[in-house]
Amino acid sequence: VIRGGRRFKVSIFDLVVGDVIPLNIGDQVPADGILIEGHSLSLDESSMTGGKQV
Question: What Gene3D superfamilies has UniProt attached to this entry (predicted)?
Answer without folding.
Answer: Calcium-transporting ATPase, cytoplasmic transduction domain A
